[in-house]
Amino acid sequence: MSSSSQETPEKVVKSEAEWRAQLTPEQYHILREKGTERPFTGALEFNHETGDYHCAGCGALLFNSGAKFDSGCGWPSFVIPADSKAVAEHEDTTYGMRRTEVTCARCGGHLGHVFPDGPGPTGLRYCINSGSLTFTHAEK
User: Fold this and answer.
1) How far apart are CA 46 and CA 40, in angstroms?
2) pTM
3) 55 is catalytic
């Protein structure tokens, strides 16, 4: 599932006007303003299809369906990114909490947070907003 052999993705840089024109208001709020959707409301929370999850901002491959699990937290959860360089992690101390924010390594879009309370093999729970993702079904 994870491979560190990929090169660092080429950065996608756009003006805020370009992002607003490309994204829906919800996607813009999540990806560019570090917003979140209400728990259990995201279109991909209950998706159990086989395929890949991409950044809604730039299309970068972020997660595979084989890494998705039902954490019960209300957002799509994954144990590991599709590639070690697909996401970037940053310390987040907003709202009086200490968390680790997850962003798309390619466009910098906010995806969600990662927590150390997931299942094996990583013990991590990447808690990701549906609005920051698109889904592509696997080829049959």
Assistant:
1) 8
2) 0.90
3) no
**Distance between CA 18 and CA 43 in Å, rounded?**
24
pLDDT tens-digit profile of 37-95?
Answer: 999 999 999 999 999 999 999 999 999 999 999 999 999 999 999 999 999 999 999 88
Which residue in 55, 58, 107, 127 is the catalytic one?
127
SS3 55: strand
CA–CA distance, 100 with 126 (Å, rounded to integer): 10
| 33 CB burial (10 A radius; 0-12, 13-18, 19+) | exposed
Beta carbons of 84 and 61 less than 8 angstroms apart? no
Q: Which of 93, 112, 107, 125 is nearest to 35 (CA)?
A: 112
Instruction: Spell 39-49 as b/e; 16+ CB within 10 A means b.
Output: eeebebbebee
Q: Show the tokens assigned to 121.
A: 């093999």
Residue pLDDT, tens place only, 121-140: 899 999 999 999 999 999 87
